[in-house]
Amino acid sequence: MGAIDRTHTRIYRRQGENERQRFPFGSPTADHHKTFLYARPNVHHMLKLVDSGVPGLDSALGGGFYRPSTVLVSGDEGVGKTTIVLQSLVFGVRNHERGLYVMPLRETMNVSLSYLERMGFFDKAIMDRGDFTIIELSDVINNPEVDLVEMLVETVKKGEFERVALDDVGQFAAVLGPDYGRFLITLTAALMKQNCMVYLIAADPDPALLSLCDGILRLALAERRTIQIVKMRGNRHTTTPIAMELSEMGIMVLPDSRE
Prior knowledge:
Order of helices and strands: EEEEHEEHEHHEHEHHEHEEEE
Radius of gyration: 17 Å
Distance between the termini: 32 Å
Strand content: 25-35%
Number of helices: 8
CATH class: Alpha Beta
Number of domains: 1
Shape: globular
Strand order of the largest sheet: 8-7-9-10-6-11-12-13-14
CATH architecture: 3-Layer(aba) Sandwich
Helix content: 25-40%
Number of strands: 14
């Protein structure tokens, strides 16, 4: 994967008091009296706390996800990464937040769509209405005449999408090669400028990718399935792995269970 390096700067405002603070790694205490503003390249939005849509996860997160932000969902194959992101996107649609799911290859899109149609939380009507869209980029991803970032941002604007997922980051890296790092940095910044909640899915992310993300969820499967909130900027959250269950209805996190 290409090298990624970006500094995160946050402006913290509370009760009329302005203070610029830098949080390159840590996360401040979250409460509902706080308003956070992001200051990134071309990004300046008030943060809104939104539900993840995954039962039990929001309490572990300290309230949910902030939008705009970028969250990495990582873990080995088969642990539920795609499920948890699709579940969150579909929930967003029910909460009047349109969802866009982006994949680099047609083959993986067909597999994911077939899988999604078997899940109990999915209703194909949301695709028929245009509230949830899956696109694949195999025809354009290596076309030098196509600006992928510009194309995806225009798709987001036209569709008024508020939750956007890229699956799988490793596939984007394999296809784009040395252009991958610049693509990911530019795209996430552009999507956050559009006030989007961005999900990145990766089995084995490049360590440099971790600094790009505001939140990191790590899923694992040993004796039982677990989810760990490695970081979530803006939230006070647990970092202990938590048990979760995966069924045809999706993922349920068991916040009272600590591994």
